[in-house]
Write a structure and sequence with these properties.
Pfam family, one: Metallophos
Strand content: 15-25%
Helix content: 25-40%
Oligomer: single chain
Organism: Mycolicibacterium llatzerense
CATH topology of the largest domain: Purple Acid Phosphatase, chain A, domain 2
InterPro entries: Calcineurin-like_PHP, DNA_Repair-Maintenance_Comp, Metallo-depent_PP-like, Mre11_N, UCP033093_metalloPase
Number of helices: 10
Largest sheet: 6 strands, mixed
Number of domains: 2
Shape: elongated
Number of strands: 16
Strand order of the largest sheet: 4-3-2-1-11-12
CATH architecture of the largest domain: 4-Layer Sandwich
Structural class: alpha/beta
GO molecular function: exonuclease activity
Protein name: Nuclease SbcCD subunit D
Length: about 375
């Protein structure tokens, strides 16, 4: 038996740092990653797909997003099993029980709510969230009393696992001991988990996995291994399991940390940004530290302005950015201006060299002056 394990589609997700047309493209990319599963399933010969929670970003989605998402699932063609997670719980306001979802849900899509018999001898067991704050281990409860009776069982759960969480006492955490006990006694053969957006194997059995999100949702220093789905083989004769990751994501969220003290450092940063592929599907977060002259800061600003137009987004990580800008000796002595203009420049340089009120504004004004001079528009 071969199937695809995926999770955390979070269809309808928005990212605050995406502006203009980048946000609609990102939303479409998340749906496209779902639709592409159809081709992958055909390629590998998968029998079905399990989605381990957070199919939707939340329960109050725009109707168009719900309709487009269901069409993407229809394109997969083989059975698709959806587990409600913490973002889209099976509560009274659930998207899964809405009139729109029920009317347009394609016949190959099933919402997991307990035990589903795929065919004789094979069961898919879902542990859906029914609220945003469950008070028990839902996955542990689902496996607790399962017998080792020769039935091949795939359990689909959502949430953090106690051995990976900094607070292992949370009541909703999945208790790995309970899950592994069900695996070891032969009652469960694979546990498909969602919630963690990076692909992660849990425990020592080789049968408990987070697939990660199929499309990136956060920067690479936080979400190290997203953009995949898992192709899972379970041998129904000897119950052995093989897991193979396939990349389906197309976007990247990249964090770059750089020291910029000289014009050479700025040139190196320019080369790094230029070398990043697929700029329209790449978000860059910069953490820059260093000390620059006003001339070099103007060069840096021009560099970043250019790439901000090329990337889906180019942002500064304020908490990790510390750039000091100080006028260099003689930096404004050869501008070819005199009189009141020269006196004004001297005053700006004095203000920019200090650390009091107005220093940042003075540096910005001097940087603008340099850029205007470079363009030949200053007298």
């Amino acid at each position: 038996m071969r199937f695809v394990h995926t999770a955390d589609w979070q269809l309808g997700m928005t990212r605050h740092f995406l502006g203009g047309e980048a946000q609609p493209r990102y939303s479409a990319a998340r749906r496209d990653a779902v639709a592409r599963l159809g081709a992958l399933c055909t390629e590998v010969g998968a029998e079905f797909v399990v989605v381990a929670g957070d199919v939707f970003e939340h329960n109050q989605l725009d109707p168009r997003e719900v309709s487009l998402s269901l069409e993407a699932m229809r394109a997969i063609k083989i059975p698709v099993f959806l587990l409600p997670g913490n973002h889209d719980p099976l509560d009274p306001a659930s998207v899964y029980t809405s009139t729109l979802f029920l009317a347009e849900c394609p016949p190959n899509v099933t919402v997991l709510d307990g035990v589903h018999e795929l065919r004789p001898g094979v069961q898919i067991i879902g542990a859906p969230w029914r609220s945003k704050a469950p008070t028990t281990d839902l996955t542990g409860d689902a496996v607790a009393d399962l017998p080792a009776d020769g039935i091949t069982r795939i359990v689909v759960g959502h949430g953090g696992v106690d051995v990976l969480d900094p607070d292992p006492t949370k009541p909703s955490l999945i208790r790995l001991d309970a899950v592994e006990a069900a695996v070891q006694r032969g009652a469960v053969h694979y546990v498909a988990l969602g919630d963690k957006h990076s692909r992660t194997e849990v425990g020592s059995t080789g049968r408990v996995w987070y697939s990660g999100a199929p499309e990136v949702t956060n920067y690479d220093d936080i979400e190290a291994d997203s953009g995949h789905v898992l192709v899972v083989d379970v041998d129904e004769a000897d119950q052995t399991v093989k897991v193979d990751a396939r990349r389906v994501g197309q976007w990247r969220f990249v964090t770059l940390r750089r020291i910029v003290d000289t014009d050479r450092d700025i040139a190196d940063l320019d080369l790094n940004l230029d070398g990043l592929p697929d700029k329209e599907r790449t978000v860059v977060r910069l953490a820059l530290t260093g000390s620059l002259t006003i001339s070099d800061k103007a060069v840096l600003d021009a560099c970043l302005d250019r790439y901000a137009r090329l990337f889906a987004a180019l942002t500064t990580w304020e908490r990790h950015t510390d750039l000091v800008v100080v006028p260099a000796d003689g930096e404004f002595s050869d501008l070819g201006i005199g009189g009141f203009a020269a006196a004004a420049v001297d005053e700006l340089v004095g203000t920019a060299s200090a650390s009091g009120d107005g220093a940042d504004d003075a540096r910005a004004a001097l940087a603008l002056l340099l850029r205007l001079v470079d363009r030949g528009t200053a007298a």
